[in-house]
Amino acid sequence: MTKSVESQLREAGLRPTKQRIALAKLLFSKGYRHVTAEGLHDEAQEACLAVSLATVYNTLNQFTGAGLLREVACEGNKSYFDTNTSNHYHFYMEGDGELIDIPVDSIDIAGLPETPKGKKIGRIDVIVQLVPDST
Description:
Blueprint: H1 5-11, H2 18-28, E1 34-35, H3 37-46, H4 53-65, E2 70-74, E3 78-82, E4 89-93, E5 98-102, E6 127-130
Parallel strand pairs: 4-6
Antiparallel strand pairs: 1-3, 2-3, 4-5
């Protein structure tokens, strides 16, 4: 976020409450990254912010709905929140749960089906799951 956190929240249609501002500063002050709600809650606790895990979940979902974050679902119900909302893909490290960006120009997408009438492709999500190499 290059603008002030408060103005970014307002532009996204969100009221800049103390908790939203504090969580946004934690989220966006470290560059592009992937966080889970639990991980951000832990960071908030380390920073002595009094927020519940439910508040963190709600805030992450509000930020995602406002276009400030991108949700990446892995392994069924595990969700990461990505501060990089541009089109890109991910490696998911099975076992340790790490998510790593793959540059867009590293993957060629071909053979997409025709979309239903009145619809167009908005985004393509690719998650490549990696496991330890046993060789």
